[in-house]
């Protein structure tokens, strides 16, 4: 099961407060129109607008903050008895529970869609960046840099064991970084020759890492292994061609 970990950075807290402010503005407008004019069902639907917008604009935690604020305002102002958080009828409990459940579901779906879109864009950018590389060192350094930027990792090591070299290729981002204890994720690099290296990732303070067997990390390892295999073959062919004497023509 994927865990969600929030780090309460100033930016995240600011965005959460903005989400709460959006719900407050919506509440003022709903009060001006009046409960008798709109009805509970319409009010509940209108409250979903700032919730969905906050989740789409700022992320999961601001979206949840907006959902909880909207549920409290809905209960306090529009579910009898008014101006209290007490609920007198079963109907009121059902309306509030359904609203809160739908709001949380909307936040989760939006966050999931945004995550998938972000992953697709990132894999495209990685594939484009690896396409033009000609050396294994360049591949290793590019992968380490991309991974660190994506997950805000404290350290990323890409280790590759070339067939014709006694020393392995190690790329680190940052170059002077030191990992504490064991890495949080270790991704084996496998190609047609077998195990050729690994990616080591140490988690940073802001973004949590997906599981080892998750689609994103598996695709990342696969792309890296193919790029390393391609550049190794190109370097081997270049080396062989350099040793092969060209036939003289008269």
> What's the CATH architecture name of the largest domain?
2-Layer Sandwich
Q: With helices defined by DSSP (H or I, 4 residues minimum), what is the helix count?
A: 7
Strand content: 5-15%
The low-confidence parts are 1-5
CATH class placement of the largest domain:
Alpha Beta
- Share of helix among residues? 55-70%
Average pLDDT rating:
83
Order of helices and strands: HHHHHHEEEEH
Distance between the termini: 71 Å
Q: What class, by secondary structure content?
A: alpha+beta
Q: How many domains make up the 3D coordinates?
A: 2
Strand order of the largest sheet: 2-1-4-3
Q: If you consult CATH, what is the topology of the largest domain? A: Beta-Lactamase
Nearest-angstrom radius of gyration?
Answer: 27 Å
Largest sheet: 4 strands, antiparallel
């Amino acid at each position: 099961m994927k865990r969600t970990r929030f780090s309460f950075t100033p930016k995240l807290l600011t965005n959460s407060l903005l989400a709460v402010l959006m719900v407050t503005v919506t509440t003022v407008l709903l009060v001006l129109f009046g409960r008798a004019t709109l009805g509970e069902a319409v009010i509940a639907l209108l409250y979903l607008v700032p919730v969905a917008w906050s989740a789409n604009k700022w992320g999961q935690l601001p979206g949840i903050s907006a959902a909880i604020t909207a549920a409290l305002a809905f209960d306090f102002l529009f579910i009898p008895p008014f101006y209290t958080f007490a609920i007198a009828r079963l109907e009121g409990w059902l309306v509030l529970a359904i609203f809160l459940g739908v709001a949380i579901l909307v936040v989760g779906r939006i966050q999931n869609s945004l995550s998938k879109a972000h992953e697709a864009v990132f894999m495209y950018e990685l594939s484009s960046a690896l396409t033009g590389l000609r050396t294994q060192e360049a591949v290793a350094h590019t992968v380490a840099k991309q991974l660190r930027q994506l997950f805000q990792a404290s350290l990323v090591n890409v280790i590759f064991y070339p067939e014709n070299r006694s020393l392995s290729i190690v790329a680190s981002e940052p170059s002077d970084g030191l990992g504490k204890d064991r890495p949080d994720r270790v991704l084996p690099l496998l190609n047609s020759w077998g195990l050729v290296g690994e990616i080591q990732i140490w988690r940073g303070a802001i973004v949590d890492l997906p599981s080892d067997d998750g689609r994103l990390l598996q695709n990342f390892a696969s792309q890296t292994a193919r790029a390393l295999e391609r550049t190794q073959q190109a370097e081997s062919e270049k080396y062989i061609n350099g040793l092969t004497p060209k036939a003289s023509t008269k």
